[in-house]
TrEMBL record:
Keywords: Glycosidase, Hydrolase. PANTHER family: BETA-HEXOSAMINIDASE, BETA-HEXOSAMINIDASE-RELATED. InterPro entries: Glyco_hydro_3_N, NagZ_Beta-hexosaminidase. This is Beta-N-acetylhexosaminidase. Signal peptide: none annotated. The lineage of its organism: Bacteria, Pseudomonadati, Pseudomonadota, Alphaproteobacteria, Sphingomonadales. It comes from Sphingomonas quercus. Residues 22-310 form the Glycoside hydrolase family 3 N-terminal domain. Its EC number is 3.2.1.52. Belongs to the glycosyl hydrolase 3 family. It is an enzyme of class 3 (hydrolase). GO terms for molecular function: beta-N-acetylhexosaminidase activity.
Amino acid sequence: MIPAFFGLAGATLDPAERAFFAEVEPAGYILFRRNVVDRAQLRALTDALRALSGRDDVPILIDQEGGRVARLQPPEWPLFPPAERFAQLYQAAPSSAMEAIRLNSLAIALTLREVGINVDCLPLLDVRQPGAHDIIGDRALGGEPMQVSALGRATLQGLREGGVVGVVKHIPGHGRAMADSHLELPVVDADEAALNIDIAPFMTLAAAPMAMTAHVVYTAWDAERCATLSPVVIARIIRGVIGFDGLLMSDDLGMKALAGEFGVRAAGAICAGCDIALHCSGDLAEMQAVVAGLTEIEPAARARLDRAMATIAGSAAAIELAEAMAARDRLLALV
């Protein structure tokens, strides 16, 4: 098994993809809108990935946040609110907001498990900062660490109850960045005192099963390398100060915040301390280049992967999708 999560090109596995994945045995997969047609097609695709891997618990990831980041969309799937909606409710009724977002996350999980998806890249624990780039924006759970932590914890709980592993992101915090890392490399010049605000929710939820790094340079910690590629940030801050010991994956290697050949990017992320290199485009030539930079997954990384997936073993929600959404909507109607 190689330490990579790969995207797919389309709605079915083509023969070249199938042969490639069978040969290299990636640790898991990630799906996007281009991979989705309807429930029957998507379930067939995830079943094919499980059969190909030979692992019932192979991680199959998606970004199903709600709001503007949703790979499964109406009319086939429900529309889920952005995180900001729950942040607003928290200001008036914190307990109601936590219950509402738990129900919302449970409903998301139920829609995902129906089609064979078992990992959601949610929640964002990025603390929203005034004047920062809007790439986080209404995806954030708020601008106060205690609120972000409380809503993030309820999100992880709802996902787990629905049989889906949550991924906290973007560790150690993207909320202060003035640029979109999809397009360029953000550089955050805040001092350590300010950065302590950003890492606080990640510290509170350090027991989360999975986390995704930020392609952001924090000059107070490492002025030369973004977090994904920084042994200093990963060892001293993420594993040390924050205390996160779950599965650590990179953000997408294809984002323009990173430079260089894909094998070099992948090797850099793993050498820096990431357990998994994430590559999303589904481009076969790029994936082949990623593999050229990787070796067999480290035993510690494999153990973290297995431990993360075991957190949902035997999960069976005691509520139906419609019931969860109706209960959520009653709470959201309070403000």
